[in-house]
Amino acid sequence: MAERIEPEALHQFYGSLNDLVGTEAMLIIYEHYKGTQLNFPVHLYDRKLVAQRVLAEFDGHNQHDLARKYGYSQKWIQMVVREKKNINK
Predict the structure, then answer these.
(1) SS3 assignment, position 44
(2) What sign has the CA pseudo-torsion 10, 11, 14, 18?
(3) Where are the chain's structural domains?
(4) 41-64 pLDDT tens trace
């Protein structure tokens, strides 16, 4: 089906998607989600799951690295660690 696509005639959204992921992937996304309103979260990772990972990986000195790794702020990382310390008291 991809060979029958006229890229110049695609809706602007699908044209951008086509440029980004290629025709085959664009058509799969189109067939799966056509007519659906999508909202992409700002963060790639789930907040609750990242909090668990941060607590497991935090060594007392790597909050900046964890913030960059998971796409959350250092302040949020500090809050997660602080809340865990408060719960343990």
Answers:
(1) coil
(2) positive
(3) 2-33, 47-88
(4) 999 999 999 999 999 999 999 999
